[in-house]
Task: structure prediction
Amino acid sequence: MPQLTPHPPATAGPVPTPLEPGEGLSSPSPRSTPTLPSPACGGGLGRGPGEDRGAGQVSVIIPTLNAADTLELQLSALCASELVKEVIVVDGGSRDETGALARAAGARVVETARGRGTQLGAGAAAAEGNWLLFLHADCRLDPSWEAAVHGFVGAPLASSRAGYFDFTLDDAAPAARRVERLVAWRCRVLALPYGDQGLLIARNLYDTVGGFAPLPLMEDVDLVRRLRRRRLARIGCRCTSSARRYRRDGYWRRPLRNLCCLSLYFAGVPPQRIAQFYG
Result:
């Protein structure tokens, strides 16, 4: 896929408003590829009733790189859900037990080149669900996520929207709450949720906007900017991310570095060069 030119920063404004009747896309239709036999992971595969509300129609896609220490708990919760058709772990060359752990949990493992944009794109290409849920390996959804997703996909014109979760950190420090407030502000004012908040999107909308570009960095911002504000909405459930990197890099330094990278991206600096700065 050719590299896309970054959109300019979003103008400050209100939270996304409902689309007008008739706007957007029709409800997702099943893909033409035949249904595979039921895997160990994905309790909803093959269900009929409730499919219009997402039951058994969600493909969960998780990019990984040496994620064995964070992945197991996430997989056990996802594989037990009746919403989930399949869990696809897209590994970028792990040297730990990530692949073996994922297979043992019943997930499909797709191996590809390292790079989150490349991995997410490969996972989406392999997915068979009508809905795609992209999650980072060190994130956990609240127990209420199934009800929230049911409500999201069952809403009118749901397939015209991409949903994101509310960002939280697994740290009781006051600095963590400050970061969470900054992220909430960024989503509300700039309409810029990041990948560590998860992204739920109908297959036909994902294909319409072109999916994830094979970028080494800013792949989430690139896709969100193509979706634009009116196609983004809060799901209304928390996604808890590991605070390990914030504790390691500092609760001031890491957000400032992220802001610097975002500014460089909107200034037109190629993501490959930003990745060198990001480290």
User: Anything to note?
Assistant: The two ends are 24 Å apart (CA to CA). Residues 1-39, 44-53 have pLDDT under 50 and may be disordered. The first helix runs from residue 68 to 79.
